[in-house]
Amino acid sequence: MKRIAVLGSTGSIGRSTLEVIRQFPERFSVTALAAHSNTGLLAAQVKEFKPALVCISDPDSCGRARTALARHAQVLCGLEGLAQLVSDGRIDMVVMAISGASALLPLLWAIENRKHVAMANKEALVMAGPLVRKKLLQRNVRLIPIDSEQSAIWQCLEGQDRSSLKKIYLTASGGPFRRMSPARMKKITVKEALAHPRWKMGEKITVDSATLMNKGLEIIETMCLFGVQPEAVEVLIHPESVIHSMVEFCDGSILAQLSEADMRIPIQYALSYPKRLASGRASFDFPAAARLTFEKPDHKRFPCLGLALRAAKQAGTMPAVLNAANEAAVDAFLSKRIPFQSIAAIIEQVMDKHGVMQEPTLEAIAEADARARTEASRLIQEKKWKQTRSS
Ligand code: NDP
Ligand code: MG
Hints:
Layout lengths: L1 E6 L4 H12 L4 E8 L3 H11 L3 E4 L5 H8 L4 E4 H9 L6 E4 L7 H9 L3 E4 L3 H17 L3 E3 L2 H10 L7 E8 L9 H4 L4 H4 L9 H9 L1 H14 L6 E5 L5 E7 L4 E5 L5 H9 L13 H4 L13 H12 L3 H17 L7 H12 L8 H20 L10
This protein binds NADPH dihydro-nicotinamide-adenine-dinucleotide phosphate and magnesium ion.
């Protein structure tokens, strides 16, 4: 029995993880659940999965959580609560499904406490990839990717001689605006940006998929997870989202990982690794898929991809700055304070102002992150970004 802690259990990945666990009660048990403020859904999950520990990280929601949950589990609160949770001796594996930069500290604490990690969050790896890699080695901890592209690359590389790896093809659906004219892109609404053609995900990553920043973040995530340089990663738009990524070896041979677009597949493999469990799903219908197509990304219409590549090459504190500015800008877009196309413009200005520090400590990364958020907020408040549409 693998005893699992799901951090971010109320989110899209968290809920899918619990679906997988529900399907294999003889293999997985839930020892701990953590959410930010959604005490209602957390309470329903606690009643079903009966964890020993729960944590609500939003201090304002703690009182409500204690009232609702104290009879069922030990209730922890805030960041200190997360620190206590990931150090609990009853946990074998932590599923990191918290969104955004908030995952970084709990991730480092989980590794410090020698918990294996099933990793959905990419922002923490973008911010502090080299520090995370170092800590994984120091503590001899396994980090298994859940992000579908990273899971694909990891599966393609299993058992292979890493020195023969030539190139990684990172596939992307292209998002909902792949064919939209630049003039029409000026009028993109929040509702349109949240209508992803292939994947049902949390709001932040859905907007990232629409700007292609998600793929940019994944270039840096790939560098962290597989120790490659940005030049070795090529982004390919693949609208059918059947091939989740590919690796090319020095002899010209290419391996790809394919499946229907369903996050429960990489989540299940991360939980069951090295075993594969029969999920009962129907075999992939190749004739129905008909055609698999590929194209190059359009950097002009999707400048976020180029910004991420620039951050990947500049390295040091720049990826954390990219991530922080993106989080602030996406938040402003979602709350209709800026138009869609200002997301990239704001990130670029924040990056232009940043003096990169190489080999940063965790403190230097936190400081760069905070300064980037302050600068992004200042820019967001400027009148020129004023949202013209309200829908
Ligand atoms: P969601 O927004 O759906 O869920 C986020 C989860 O994190 C919720 O449980 C939320 O709690 C919790 N949370 C939010 N803020 C904090 C905080 N400050 N401290 C602690 N917990 C917090 O996100 P997704 O599930 O879509 O994505 C999660 C991560 O996985 C992201 O990093 C994303 O990039 C990555 N990912 C997601 C994929 C997907 O298909 N969704 C695919 C690949 C990667 P509450 O509900 O209480 O607010
Ligand atoms: Mg992905």
